[in-house]
Amino acid sequence: MRSLLATALLAVISSPCLAQNQGLKLINGVDTHIDVKYDKSLVPQSGITLEAWVTYDGSTLQSGWRWPTIARQNPVPQQESFLLRVDAGTASNTAIKWFVRTSGTHAHATWNFTVGQLKAWTHIAGTYDGAFARIFVNGLEVAKAAGSGTILDAGNVLRIGNGDLSSPGAETWNGEIDEVRLWPVARDGAEIQSMMKLDLQRCPGEVSTWNLNGDAKDSSATNHGSRQGQVTFASNTLLLQKTPFAGALGFGDSTAGCNGAPLAGISALPKVGNTNFAVTCIRATRTGTGALMLSAAGRTSPLPLLGAKVWIDPITALAIPAQGDPLAASKTAVPIPKSPWLGSQAFYCQYFWIESGCKVPLFASDGLTISIYP
Questions:
Q1: Same domain (yes/no): 82, 219
Q2: Which end of the chain has fewer CB atoms within 10 angstroms, the N or the C?
């Protein structure tokens, strides 16, 4: 069951891997930021988690209206798809706002922090699952607000470190930003905590990871950013564990269904003893049924089954029932026992779906290789 992938993983994590990082350093009042060219994966219709490590100093804000922004999709005034920022206003208010513009009721969650609380490195995440927008601080839920529908997609760039430029400098972040990530699923606190202290790269399932280590490249996908203005990347005191990949790699390709091409991913770190580990699927089914198939082996070429491509070994496969939600997303719990022998072992999985009314009899995700961290 051990794979070359798992062996390589064991070699990396057996050596010291804490290192000092770089990140963005921004000053409110000065328009600098990172712009990521529009791609539909930046406005996921299956749910969202937007997260980042930040520091913030409200005591040095200039006078006037101020909205220091961590990230904003579509900076056109009143047209944002989502944003995560401090609503400082004219009085240096200390309130984090997570706003998602949807096809139904807009979701708007707010967390009030104390003066100076964010001067130390703090992990902040906003999630939306089609029913609630939530804010997590260091992996703990601190606020939520009801919403409905999918995220409205009006195109335009994803902006990191700034927002609307109609009031010069007013929405530039005031502090540091590091490890910005965008997931196409809503994650819970335990899932966020399992990976927030990693310098995360090569995460499958249409996840984007901007490590900001001297550049604006997306280390998991192709949503690379570009510098706007005099962007400063500076060394910081945030210590993260270096990882060669997130413990999972996709292989093969999908068999598209009525919601598009399903794509498998993970929501947490596959680590020995992580009972919160789950495998995810986007563009799955809204009303149908399915299964996550776990296997001891993968295939280099697919087997045909009712028009679907099978990328895992069916002889050793184990089926776990799976269900889609109203956003055509699925999350299937695969608890990893606290058994030392599982460390550096690998397994393979793939989703299969049937949806009533869909002319495609059987559709399937790509394959996923998962290597377990000791």
A1: yes
A2: N
Computed over its alpha carbons, how large is the radius of gyration of the chain?
21
> What does the pLDDT look like over 339-366, one tens digit per residue?
988 888 999 999 999 998 999 999 999 9
DSSP string covering 331-342, please?
EEE----S-GGG
Contact predicate 25/233, CB 8 Å? yes
Strand order in the sheet with 278-282: 263-266, 278-282, 330-333
Q: Residues 50, 175: one domain?
A: yes
Pairing of β 158-160 and β 140-146: unpaired
Specify the amino acid at residue 116.
G
Report the CATH number at residue 33: 2.60.120.200
Shared-domain flag, residues 31 and 112: yes
pLDDT tens column, 261-284: 999 999 999 999 999 999 999 999
Can you give the pLDDT at residue 19?
Answer: 47
Query: Long-range contacts for 334-339 (Cβ within 8 Å, ≥24 apart)?
Result: 334/277, 334/278, 334/279, 334/292, 334/294, 335/274, 335/275, 335/276, 335/277, 336/270, 336/271, 336/272, 336/273, 336/274, 336/275, 336/277, 336/372, 337/272, 337/273, 338/272, 338/273, 339/272
Give the rounded percent of residues in the chain with a pLDDT score beyond 70.
Answer: 95
CATH of the domain at 298: 2.60.40
pLDDT tens string 195-239? 999 999 999 999 999 999 999 999 999 999 999 999 999 999 999
